[in-house]
Amino acid sequence: MESATRTLVKSPPELWELLDQPERMQGLMCSLLGRATEIKVYERDPGACLGWEASEGGEGAWIEIELAEKGWGTSVQLAAENGGQGTRLEGWLEAVMDELAMPSKRPFDGVV
C-alpha cells in the first residue's frame, strides 16, 4: 500500500462531486491496474470517505480517499494498492492528486 496526502484549494463537496461517480472510480481503477476492470464500492461516507476495489481479476487492488476540511481547502488522503500489477503506485498517486487539484469550474469562461 502507498499513500499521499495533499491540501487542495477546493471544498469537500466539490471534491466529493468529482470523485463519487462510477465512471471516474472505474477509470481510476483501470489506470491503476493498467487494464479494464469492473469495480465494487465497499465504503461510502458522503463528503468524507470513499473506497472501492476491483471486483474481478484484481485481487488486492483497491483505492481509498479521505476528505477533511482544512483552512481554505480540503486535506485529501489517497491510498491505493494494485496487488503487484499495473502501474507504479508512487507516480500514479501524484498524478491523481494533480488531476484533483486542477480547476474544474471556470467562472469567467466565455466572458468577453
Write the layout of secondary structure elements.
Layout: E1 2-8, H1 12-19, H2 22-33, E2 39-45, E3 49-54, E4 61-70, E5 73-82, H3 89-101
Antiparallel strand pairs: 1-5, 2-3, 3-4, 4-5
3D architecture notes:
This protein has one domain (about 1-100): Alpha-D-Glucose-1,6-Bisphosphate, Chain A, domain 4 (2-Layer Sandwich), CATH 3.30.530. The chain is about 30% helix and about 35% strand. It is built from three helices and five strands. A five-stranded antiparallel β-sheet has the order 1-5-4-3-2.
Q: How big is the Rg?
A: 14 Å
Q: Specify the biggest β-sheet.
A: 5 strands, antiparallel
Order of strands in the sheet with the most strands? 1-5-4-3-2
Question: Which stretches of 5+ consecutive residues score pLDDT under 50?
Answer: none
In N-to-C order, the SSE pattern is EHHEEEEH
Count the helices. How many? Answer: 3
Q: Helicity level, as a percent range?
A: 25-40%
- Quickly name the level 1 CATH class: Alpha Beta
Briefly, what is this?
With 112 residues, this protein is α+β, with helices and mostly antiparallel strands. It has helices at 12-19, 22-33, 89-101; strands at residues 2-8, 39-45, 49-54, 61-70, 73-82.
